[in-house]
Amino acid sequence: MPVISYDLxxxxxxxxxxxxxxxxxxxxxRSGRRVTSVGxxxxxxxxxxxxxxxxxxxxxxxxxxxxxxxxxxxSELVDDxxxxxxxxxxxxxxxxxxxxxxxxxxxxxxxxxxxxxEEETEVGEDDPAIAVLRxxxxxxxxxxxxxxxxxxxxxxxPPCPLCGLPLDxxxxxxxxxxxxxx
Length: 182
Fold this sequence. Notes:
Blueprint: E1 3-7, E2 11-17, E3 24-31, E4 34-40, H1 42-62, E5 89-101, E6 106-113, E7 132-138, H2 139-154
Parallel strand pairs: 1-7, 4-5
Antiparallel strand pairs: 2-3, 3-4, 5-6, 6-7
Helix pairs in contact: 1-2
């Protein structure tokens, strides 16, 4: 499979489809009529958003505030719209990579297709059998992406106040209550 590239797409978001507790998570990039959706796990969405925030904060800190990195999401980039339909998964994400391109002042995100021999493959290797989604976005787009991604993850089931595990509508077996329903 090829490298699917987006250079400053019109839209790059994380989203979820389904009911809390049974959601499928996606990264979705769009430029014009071209839309690419890749599936990933909830924890991957969280990690990507957190690492993006850390990367942007570090770029801003190292530049002494001179880098074109907004401290917060610009209001015009807030995107609360649902994923573009239909959501057709190109592949399931395994390894992800994140970088700052100082020449273009852009964030580069790579999401590589999960493989059976994932531990033997590194992101960026030119293996034509492995699909890669490569997206280059501005720092402002990255802030907006991270903010939305964290909202999407938080919109799931509420956590148990005792143990932090997700609560189902009928409760859950809480380890802090010695296995009784919480």
